[in-house]
Specification:
mainly beta, 3 helices, elongated, LRR_TM_domain-containing, repeat
Length: 400
Amino acid sequence: MMWYMKYLALASILFNVQATPNFLHDGSNLVCVSDDDADFVLKKGVLSDTSDTKSITLKSCGITRVKCEAFHGLPAVKSLVLSENRIHKLDPCMLNGLDQLTHLDISFNRIEEIPTGFFDAVDDIEELYLQGNKLRTIKTGVFDKLIKLTHLNLAYNELRGVELKSHIFDNTKQLKYLNLTKNYFLEAPDNLLASLPSLLVLNLDKCVLTEVPSFAMRDNLKTLKNLSLTTNFISNLDNPTTFVNMDDLEVLDLNGNSIESVHENVFAPLKKVKTIYLRRNRLIKIPDKLFQNLPKLVNVDLAFNAIEKIQVTPFKNSPMKNLNLSGNRLTYLPENFCQQLINEGGRLKKFLFSHNPWQCGCLRDIIEEAKSLGLVYNRDKYSGNDAVCVSGTQFGCVRN
C-alpha cells in the first residue's frame, strides 16, 4: 500500500506542474510557439528583458493569469496580443511598464470584469480588442484614461444594456470604430454614445433589438459612415426621422431582421448612402419613394423577402448599379424594367433575380433584356438543369 500511495503523490506532483510555453524572438517580435495546452501563469521573469521588443504575441498559450510586472523590462512594446487563452481575471497592475502600448488584444478569453484603473498605466492605447469574453457590464471610469482610443471591439460578450451607465464612453472622444455585436442592448441608455463625435463605424448585429435604438440615432453621430443592425428583431421602419441625423452614412445594413413595413421617406435623409441591405426580411411591398433621389446610392439588396410586385418608381433619380431581387414572390416585372431603371437615372450593371416564381414568358423577357443591356445576372441559375419558372396557359408574359 505504501508504494501505491507514493506513486499517487508523485503522479499528483507531475500532473500539477505548470508547463512553460516556449518563446521565440523574431527580430523585434516576441512570439509564443508552444503547442502545450497546460495552464500557465505568466509572471515576472518568464519573458526575457529587452529594450528592442516592440511586439508580443502570446496567442493560444494556455495562459490563465498574467501577474503584476510580467512585462517588466519591455519598455518599447507597442502591441500585446493575449487572445485565445484562458484568462478569467485581470490583475489591476498587469500592464504596468508598457508605457508605449498602442495595441492590446485580450479577446476570446474568459474575462468577466475589467477592474477600475486597469488601463491607467497604458493611456496611449489606440486599439483595444475585448471580444469573445464574458463581460456583463463596464464600470464607469474604466475607459476614462483612453483618450487616444480609436478602435474598440466588445462583441460576443454578455453585456446587458440595462446594466450599462451612460457615461462609460465620456472620455473616448476619438473613438471611430465600435463593435457591440452579440450582446443584449434592448434597454441601453439613450445617451450611451452621446460623447462620441467622431464615430465612423457602429456594429450592433445580434443585439436582440426590436427597433433601431435611440442611442444610435443621436445628432452627435453625423460622422457615422457604416451602421450595421443585422440579425435583430426589428419589425418596421415606420418612423421617417429614424436616420435624420446620419448625414454621412454610406452603408446601412439591416439584413436578417423581421421588417414588414417601411415609411416611404425613411431613407430620404441619407444623401451620401451608397449601399442599403434589406436582405432576409418580410417586406411585401416597396413604397413608391423609398429609394428615390439618393444621389450616391449604387447598391440595393432586397433578396429573400416576400415582395410580390415592384415598380421602377421607388428607384427614380438614384444612380443604382447593383440590384438584387432574388428569392422573392415575383411572377413578372414591368415591361423593359431594366431599361426603365436606366432611363430614370440608374446606372444598372448587375441585376440578380433568381429564386422567384416567374411566369416563363416573363422570365424569358427579363433574361433577353439583361443580355441586350450587357448586365451581369444569375447566369448559372438558368443553365437548363433546374426548374426556374412556372408555365401558364399563355406563352407571353401576363402583367396585372
